Amino acid sequence: MDGSPTHVSYERSKSASNIFEKKPFLIGVAGGTASGKSTVCRRIMEKLGQDEMDDTQRQVVCITQDSFYKELNSEDGLKARKGKYNFDHPDAMDFDLLLDTLQAILHGKKCQVPVYDYSTNSRLLVYFRILKGSCAPLYSRKKDEFITIHPADVVLLEGILVFYCKEIRDLFHMKLFVDTDSDTRLMRRVLRDVKERGRDLEHVLNQYLLFVKPSFENFCLPTKKFADVIIPRGADNSGKL
Ligand SMILES: Nc1ncnc2c1ncn2[C@@H]1O[C@H](COP(=O)(O)OP(=O)(O)O)[C@@H](O)[C@H]1O
Ligand SMILES: Nc1ccn([C@@H]2O[C@H](COP(=O)(O)O)[C@@H](O)[C@H]2O)c(=O)n1
Questions:
Q1: Closest Cα to atom 6, ligand 2: which residue?
Q2: Can you tell me the distance from the alpha carbon of 227 to that of 186, in angstroms, rounded to the nearest whole number?
Q3: Each residue of 70-83: pLDDT tens digit?
Q4: How far, in Å, CA of 28 to CA of 174, rounded?
Q5: Which stretches are annotated as coiled coil (predicted)?
Q6: What angle is formed at CA 7 by the lines to CA 155 and CA 101, rounded to 5 degrees?
Q7: Is the CB of 189 under 6 A from ligand 1?
Q8: Which of 114, 99, 106 shows the shortest CA–CA distance to 26?
Q9: CA distances from 168 to 20, 25, 164 (A)
Q10: What CATH number does residue 224 fall under?
């Protein structure tokens, strides 16, 4: 990471001195694809009664690393549409933007995080329609869609590679690794990607064999050793015998 400026935008949570700003407790949740990271985060939010709350009132917020995928050039975009782009390699991630965002969060700032769209392999865009004059044509304008992360007591960040970079890893106050067997993960991934991410079966299986599985073994699994807590079977694990 070169520490170069990125386009993360944030503002102070309080206009007065920030001496009394709360430093949130940052929890990283790693694990292979479809291991149940988001489900575990959702379960934590539910247990803490945070799921029904308004964004500005929440004391626990959850961010996904998928918001920090790099934007693709047209050549890589074409590869991605054919399942020939490696989204599981660290090079696919904008770790600089992620680091800047986490640092801002840890300073109690309100942050804007991009929203990712798996069907287009890019950040979600919102279209604005601008009416020029009374009978002039309508103009469309595109703009990145962001979600606002309000300052909170606890921030969860989930993703396959959240423990990969030391600079990012060292920011977590607690590190969880969701450990789910690979057959179960593949089965869930197929169902999810076809139902929710606009993929066909052949695409999902080719991508899995070509990139997802080898990258899990090379980049994600080796980060399990950094976890403070390993959660076998994800949200199925109630902690009871
Ligand atoms: N314990 C579970 N039992 C059954 N299905 C699950 C379980 N945990 C997650 N899933 C399903 O598996 C898919 C992937 O889960 P998700 O939590 O999104 O994984 P990840 O965030 O690790 O990719 C989702 O469709 C989810 O509903
Ligand atoms: N355009 C994209 C971006 C990511 N992926 C896959 O998503 C997986 C990470 O998300 P999980 O919820 O499964 O942790 C990762 O394995 C990428 O292969 C994608 O297919 N397309």
A1: 87
A2: 23
A3: 999 999 999 999 99
A4: 6
A5: none
A6: 15
A7: no
A8: 106
A9: 24, 14, 8
A10: 3.40.50.300
Domain carrying residue 184: 21-232
Pairing of strands 60-64, 154-158: parallel
Q: Whose CA is nearest to atom 21 of ligand 2?
A: 118
Give me ligand 1 centre to Cα 109, in Å.
31
- CA separation (Å) from 77 to 64, 125, 136, 201? 21, 16, 35, 20
Does residue 16 form part of some domain?
Answer: no
For the chain, the domain total comes to 1
Residue 91 belongs to some domain of the structure: yes
pLDDT digits (tens, 9 = 90+) for 42-68: 999 888 887 777 777 789 999 999 999
Is the C-beta atom of 192 inside 6 A of ligand 1?
yes
Q: Which atom of ligand 1 is nearest to the CA of 33?
A: 23
Q: Evaluate whether residue 115 is within a structural domain.
A: yes
Is residue 14, in this structure, part of any structural domain at all? no
Give the nearest ligand 1 atom to 160 CA: 22
The predicted model scores a pTM of 0.88
> Is the Cβ atom of 36 under 6 angstroms away from ligand 1?
yes
38 lines ligand 1 (CB under 6 A): yes
Atom 16 of ligand 2 has which residue's CA nearest to it? 33
Evaluated on CA atoms 41, 235, 202, 199, the torsion sign reads negative
- Ligand 2 contact, 223 CB (< 6 A): no
Q: Are the C-beta atoms of 95 and 165 separated by less than 8 Å?
A: yes
CA 132 to ligand 1 center in whole angstroms: 47
